[in-house]
Amino acid sequence: MTRPSHHSSGDAAALPEKPLSVPYQGVFQWRSNQSASILGRCAVGIASTALNGAQAIAAILKQNEIDRDFDDDEPGVLRLGSITTSGLIDALASCIELAEMQVTGGRAYFTTSVESGTQAERVMERAAWDARAAEASERAVDRTSGSTK
């Protein structure tokens, strides 16, 4: 659906119709069954840092929105211009894209991804379960021996 044209010339073919909204990815597009990934320590660190950056940017944008209700002359009021806000939104999208690249294996050096439903995926899942069991066993030994890590 497009917005009604407001061109004064009457020539609708002169300019393309403006969409009602910026195209976006739906948050309900479930992405399972594509691939399985193992994240190395570095990939986890990169994804974690990217998500921390996204949270910080979201907090700045939220504060800007909250401060709209206050007068400009009040101390400590955050005022961001449209160019700054647009830049922060782009930075937020970049942080999220970086985290997603680490998780999905897209252009990530420290992530191993395999096709879903394959023997390789089953091996990865088994390795993950074995690692969890070994970690739980190690914690149980530490608790019984009185050791704290």
The H-and-E topology, N to C, reads as: EHHEH
Mean model confidence by pLDDT: 78
- Count of individual domains: 2
Principal-axes shape call: flat
Beta-strand fraction estimate:
5-15%
Query: Helical percent range?
Result: 40-55%
Number of strands: 2
Largest sheet: 2 strands, antiparallel
Strand order in space, largest sheet: 1-2
Task: List low-pLDDT spans.
Answer: 1-9
Radius of gyration: 24 Å
Alpha-carbon distance between the two ends: 60 Å
Briefly note the structural class of the backbone.
mainly alpha
Describe the structure.
The protein contains 3 helices and 2 strands; from the N terminus they run βααβα. With 149 residues, the protein is mainly alpha-helical. The chain has a two-stranded antiparallel sheet. The protein is flat, with a radius of gyration of 24 Å. The protein starts with 34 loop residues before the first strand and ends with a helix. Mean pLDDT is 78; it is low at 1-9.
Structural topology:
Layout: E1 35-39, H1 41-66, H2 82-104, E2 111-115, H3 119-145
Antiparallel strand pairs: 1-2
Provide a concise account of the structure shown.
This protein is mainly alpha-helical and 149 residues long. It is built from three helices and two strands.
Question: Can you give keywords for this protein?
Answer:
about 150 residues; mainly alpha; 2 domains; 3 helices; disordered N terminus
